[in-house]
Amino acid sequence: MAAITAADVNKLRTMTGAGMMDCKKALTEADGDFEAARDILRKQGQKIADKRADNETSEGFVAVAVSEDGTAGKLVALACETESVAKVASFRELVQRILDAAVRTNATSQEELLATKEEDGLTIQEHITDLMGKIGEKLNLTYATLSAEKVASYIHSDSKKGVLVGLKNVGGADTAAVGRDVAMQIVAMKPVAVDKDGVDASITEREIEIGKEQARAEGKPEAMLEKIAQGKLNKFYKENTLLNQEFVKDNSLTIAQLLDKTSKGMTVTDFKRVAIGA
Q1: 128 falls in which pLDDT band (50, 70, 90)?
Q2: Model-level pTM?
Q3: Which of 73, 107, 187, 199 could cross-link 164 (Cys pair, CB 3.0–4.6 Å)?
């Protein structure tokens, strides 16, 4: 059995960021082999991930990056179980590492991002698993990417909600202010689509059926149910599709009118909204 010194423990701690006692235990189990000890610590993270798989992750941190030319945006949200963990330096550093990897590799999917290898030879997924072993909580990553003529972004003050929004037909307009306003609208009002054409057919069908049932319960004649339901559906579109929503800062304008007022023909092509715990 190899003698485990304080210097050995400190070296492993520096390599992994794990706690002193965890490092000592891993080195002892690995008989002083540092690589084997690192594997043991990683397995601890996987055990925690498996054990806490059903736990809720309602806290966390969102980070966003938009390219210098403003045509591409990346958003990462790392969720954890408790607010205290969300404030830990190593947690915030991991969020930044993930975002940097997304920008560097231009990852097009979450699976691609998780499989990205860092300079230390570990993938992003392995770094997440490692941190789970250190903090003892489940972590959950959400990744979104968006490209457009102009991409705007916004992170809410609680750092738990973030948005990327794509604009087109911006002309010569300075889109910074209006892009931020639209992104804030998306965070606050949670639209389900850009316009009614983007609403999933299953949602449309459900809203029509709900409208019919409500009208029927109010005693309306059967012949009128379809017309009444269509009226209720149009109200749903107005309240739940971005371009048709009233602008929260000025309800005399819809978002479509706000954009057109800023630059003739400007509109939204797509948006990504990510919220931790909501």
Answers
A1: very high
A2: 0.80
A3: 73
